[in-house]
Amino acid sequence: MKQFVSTRWQVYAGFAIAAVLLFAVAPAVLSDFRLNLLGKFLCFGIVAVGIGLAWGRGGMLVLGQGVFFGLGAYIMAMHLKISDAELRGDTVPDFMQIAGIADLPGYWQPFTSPVVTILGIIFIPTGVAVVLGLGIFKRRVKGAYFAILSQALAAAFAILLVGQQTTGGSNGLNRFRSFFGLALNDPANKRLLFFIAAAALLIVVAVTRQLMYSRYGELLVAVRDQEERVRFLGYDPANIKLVAYTVAALFASIAGALFVPVVGIISPADVGIVPSIAFLIGVAIGGRTTLLGPVLGAIGVAWAQTNLSESFPSGWVYAQGLLFIVVVGFFPAGLAGLGALARWRRKRAEPDPPDPEPDKAEATPVGASS
């Protein structure tokens, strides 16, 4: 009981330190540009938390999170473009006017409402995940087949968006001016967006921790390690996987919705195969089986990509792929597992304690004189 209380207070302290770093230290030491860049990285961290749950705990190699990221992002982008058009007194967004589209498409109409937009960000990607998950897991598709299928979905989604003139085609949607009534060119509102992204990340991490250390989390790990035994005990592994897959989809959708006002653009290049693999690389490097490893790995990889791609624009993609292969092949636990490995080796190198000396009375043979 004492250990449980101690662990609980350590968790509280960890969240408190993270809150101080995000809400006090980062705004104080970073410029507006760097703070906005960190907000973009936090969105990637939200996606990574869901991947850590589905892949690290559930063993599902989700290579298609760009689909759910893109759904949330495009839903938010459509609402923002409609709002900007209303502020100008127009009936359709600016890019539709240039393309000669006079009427707002029917599937854009519901997202004129902020409430419907928020509900769409939550329920549309999760609904898609439920439908896909039922079709995949009930048929017991797993392993490499699941990974290839999820990656094919991301590729198909990006190709579909490129061919849609009403979603901006290959250019995507950009040049947003407002966010639920707030002017995006105001530095104070940009800072508010960072705080929203930071709060969302902390909430997502807290929810994921609760799932990991609950009875469901134990079942998810059991399904990953011994699926047939779990089925023999009377549980349906498909339903257990479906929950993790849907939660990961919801987190990706929320991240995409926050990514749009923070970065100011969403295009098919942000939702295809390459972004989906980039999400996965960050999780693998950080440590997919841990709680904070995926977040730190995703933020670190995004930071490296932003800084190193300026110096090595053509070589970064190859370096990223090589890094993923090295980590998965030689450090499957990621950077978070290096600390545990070092502690294990240090403990193994310690000399064994000497055997206790036998008691003198026990060493005296029976019947011997004292």
UniProtKB/TrEMBL annotation:
Any one GO cellular component localisation term in the record: plasma membrane
Gene Ontology MF annotations: branched-chain amino acid transmembrane transporter activity
- Main subcellular localisation: membrane
Q: Where is this region: Disordered?
A: 347-370
Tell me where it resides.
Cell membrane
Q: Which UniProt keywords apply?
A: Cell membrane, Membrane, Transmembrane, Transmembrane helix
**UniProt keyword annotation of tRNA-binding present:** no
Parts of the chain that traverse the membrane: 12-30, 37-55, 61-80, 115-137, 192-212, 242-266, 278-304, 316-341
Q: How does it sit in the membrane?
A: Multi-pass membrane protein
Q: Name one Pfam family in it.
A: BPD_transp_2
- Keyword RNA-binding included in the entry's annotation: no
InterPro entries on file: ABC_transp_permease, ABC_transptr_urea_perm_UrtC, LivM-like
This protein's name? Urea ABC transporter membrane protein
Q: Which organism is it from?
A: Williamsia limnetica
